[in-house]
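User: Hello! My lab partner asked me to get a predicted holo structure for this protein. The small molecule is 1-O-phosphono-alpha-D-ribofuranose, SMILES included with the sequence. Please write out the structure tokens.
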Amino acid sequence: MSGCPLSVEGMASVLPASNKSMKSDRNTNVGKKFVHVQNPYLDLMDEDILYHFALGTKTHNLPVMFGDVKFVCVGGSSNRMKAFALRMHKELGCEGDGEEMKDICAGTDRFCMYKTGPVLSISHGMGVPSISVMLHELIKLLYHAQCCDVTIFRIGTSGGIGIEPGSVVITDTAVDSFFKPRFEQVIMDSIVTRSTELDRDLAEELFTCSKDFPHFPTLIGHTMCTDDFYEGQGRLDGALCSYSREKKLDYLKRAYKAGVRNIEMECTVFAAICGRCGIKAGVVCVTLLNRLEGDQITTPHDVLVEYQQRPQLLIATFIKQQLGLCRTPPPAPASPERTLQC
Ligand SMILES: O=P(O)(O)O[C@H]1O[C@H](CO)[C@@H](O)[C@H]1O
Ligand SMILES: O=c1cc[nH]c(=O)[nH]1
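Assistant: Hello! Below are the structure tokens for the protein in complex with 1-O-phosphono-alpha-D-ribofuranose.
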């Protein structure tokens, strides 16, 4: 994050041991949409240790480190999220080549985190349990840092259904394996059902933005979240397979009929947790294959690398537009393209 005009590098971010946790009056900022938590116990705690990030309210000055965050991008792989941070570094016109950018979570190898100006880039690993742990700590971090008007994106990979590999799917509805827009969470010995609503306007805005990239198809559709890559997604190539090829195809075709265009492993919990905490959320995943045609990912590595960049390209452009750093769309003749002071 060094050299970026919007970064907080250089300010005291690690607190002396004696410091109290950072708390402030959120009521002074009327009109702003603050990230909130849904836990009455949190404010009663003297200290909050974000264990999987190796950060804490007494050891780190979270408002100084993260108070300006407006966009958070999450994705499964740490390399992808570092690449996205480097891309944003360049796109925001920050100084240097970004190679000096530090992993804020270097104290742990669970997740990686990079900050470029108002953009935070974080990995979440694979599957609901992993992203769920990350999201709890991320949202507490944004809450402790008193962040407001935050938008969060998941930029991922997925298996497509009935669409060309390399297509980018912007999720309108995150559904479970029964094609229902819900996330069922086992909480102790109860099952709690939460809504998986995503921001429709955001999906439409992203779709409009995708028109800048005619070299790959982008569409809006339902995304199905499963708890497994193999049997959970009806694959015939796992170590176990308890159904027939016909049953698999019947399932995928029913999914398609229900509006599902791609399958991945995190979108329902992502939508459910972000929605409950007042964070505008979007899911954008590229498809690596068409599941009606096969299960194995046979696409060459270099093509897969290019595919993975598609959601990044779209989100980076969207963020630049939101920050007023892009001319498109709409062209603004009266106000020339803004540049950031580095
Ligand atoms: O590419 P990412 O973000 O990891 O997402 C997808 O890829 C993983 C499976 O290969 C799952 O986590 C799935 O959701
Ligand atoms: O088929 C696929 C490809 C990527 N990620 C998934 O979850 N499934």
